[in-house]
């Protein structure tokens, strides 16, 4: 991943989304890798709007839900107002004991003790 020579942060990914507001949200979030609060994101997205944007900040959450549907196939997701690479954070299975597979389906011969 290429990094900026001045600040050292990685360059934001080239993601394709539809809609002006969604593109603006992606641009803002990808340039703030530390994350943003919803209110900050709302103010940045609608800063140019002469009316100040919608009355409800929930529209940001709705936009992000639709953005995630578009960018998840591209390997990215917005979580807690941060852009996350889903390929890098893929969950791996925990290490198993070497004999675990051989012991699957085998009933234990040890009976549990009942304490009275």
Are there runs of 5+ residues with pLDDT below 50, and where? none
Give the overall shape, derived from the CA principal axes: globular
Task: Give the biggest sheet.
Answer: 2 strands, antiparallel
Percentage of residues in strands: 5-15%
The count of β-strands is: 2
Outline the structure in words.
- The chain has about 120 residues and is mostly helical.
- It has a domain at about 20-85.
- It has helices at about 20-30, 40-45, 60-70, 100-105; strands at about 75-80, 80-85.
- Strands 1-2 form a two-stranded antiparallel sheet.
- β1 (about 75-80) and β2 (about 80-85) form a beta hairpin.
- α1 packs across α3.
- The radius of gyration is 23 Å and the shape is globular.
- The termini are far apart.
